[in-house]
Amino acid sequence: DIYQGRMKGIDICLKVLRIFTNGEMKPRGDIRKKFCSEVLVWRNLEHPNVLRFVGVNEDLFYPSFCLISPWMKNGDIISFLSQNPGHDRMQCIREVANGLHYLHSHDPPVIHADIRGANILVTEDLHCCLADFGLAKAVMTRGPESYSDSPSGTARWLAPELLQVDASSDWQYMPSRDIYAFGCTVVEIFTGRLPFSDIIHEMSVALAVLQNDRRPTRP
Q1: Which residue, 95, 129, 130, 153, has fewest beta-carbon neighbours within 10 Å?
Q2: Cα–Cα dist 68/39, whole Å
Q3: Which entry of 30, 88, 107, 114 is annotated as an active-site residue?
């Protein structure tokens, strides 16, 4: 959940981790684990095309936690382009690519794992920056303990190999995952529509990709 606030005269965004799933409260230890995972990656990032990390708060929304970043009044890139269709879309793509290159240039590389229009915000001076590092990881090893057993993310932006039931865990956090999602996001930025916009359900997208070898339609 997202809230707007002010700190030292500056508008800020408070991202609060949800503590209820299907009406049941998650253990605070599980919430803390997710919270710390995002903070550990995000707090070390500093680039014009990456949303700036401001801080954290463990008390304001207790028992949950919140992450603090600058407030982006222009919203995400897709909403912004729908209201400003004349904006330079190639410049948007270059800036997303610059942010992604910065992440992957770390040693070890940082894998965002959720590149899509909704996670690209537009700054006050109209530049794009990558946001939402909830799925991101710094890939320290190639061992199976470094990965989840099933892919996280949204089917419309997931590479085909990640949609397979028997997908290798080694693929879950590799730079190529972000590159495929970036390609889908390029389509999204140019068309203003979701990848596979003719398909309603996420599961149907996965089946179309795996069974019919579908790919997002190029503009």
Answers
A1: 153
A2: 10
A3: 114
Tokens of 162: 């990640």
Is residue 88 annotated as part of the catalytic site, yes or no? no
d(CA 12, CA 5): 5
Cβ distance 13 to 110 under 8 Å? no
If you write DSSP's letter for every residue of 146-187 in order, what string do you get? GS-SS--S-GGGS-HHHHSTT--GGGTT-HHHHHHHHHHHHH
Per-residue pLDDT band for 64 (boundaries 50, 70, 90) equals: confident
* Cis peptide bond prior to 160, omega within 30° of 0: no
Q: Which structural domains are found in the chain, ordered by start?
A: 2-70 (3.30.200.20), 77-212 (1.10.510.10)
